[in-house]
């Protein structure tokens, strides 16, 4: 099995509705994102997915989040924009751009020591 990974980042603000503690208040993060793709076979060029294409798609999606108040994005109107939910959101947004089953995992780093991943 071959695995490839790209990284990118965005900055945004959020608050966690119903949370009892500091994260209930408006605050921001510089999130770091990792997207992994897998394949048992390589394409005719010897790649799982072209890194450039993966990065282009991811960055276009992250541009929708960058320097935004995440709670105001329709996906997060009823659920908190936690790292876990952001990982699933990004997975669901990026997966349709690539062959079924190739995107295997999205990881969202909220801090240097705190991350969440989503894989289907």
From TrEMBL:
An example Pfam family from this entry, by short name, is PTPS
- Could you tell me what reaction this enzyme catalyses? 7,8-dihydroneopterin 3'-triphosphate + H2O = 6-carboxy-5,6,7,8-tetrahydropterin + triphosphate + acetaldehyde + 2 H(+)
Enumerate the transmembrane spans.
none
Keyword tRNA processing, does the record have it? no
First-tier enzyme category under EC: lyase
Q: In which pathway does it act?
A: Purine metabolism; 7-cyano-7-deazaguanine biosynthesis
Per UniProt, the keywords (alphabetical) are:
Lyase, Metal-binding, Queuosine biosynthesis, Zinc
Which InterPro entries does the entry mention? 6-PTP_synth/QueD (IPR007115), 6-PTP_synth/QueD_sf (IPR038418)
**An example Gene Ontology molecular-function term:** metal ion binding
What GO terms in the biological process aspect are recorded for it?
Answer: tRNA queuosine(34) biosynthetic process
The UniProt record lists the EC number as 4.-.-.-
Per its UniProt record, the required cofactor names are: Zn(2+)
According to the record, how does the cofactor bind? Binds 1 zinc ion per subunit.
Q: Which residues form the active site?
A: 23 (proton acceptor), 67 (charge relay system), 110 (charge relay system)
Residues annotated as binding Zn(2+) are 14, 27, 29
Q: Its family?
A: Belongs to the PTPS family. QueD subfamily.
Q: Which NCBIfam families match?
A: queuosine_QueD
Q: What is the name of this protein?
A: 6-carboxy-5,6,7,8-tetrahydropterin synthase
Species name: Candidatus Omnitrophus magneticus
Lineage runs: Bacteria, Pseudomonadati, Candidatus Omnitrophota, Candidatus Omnitrophus
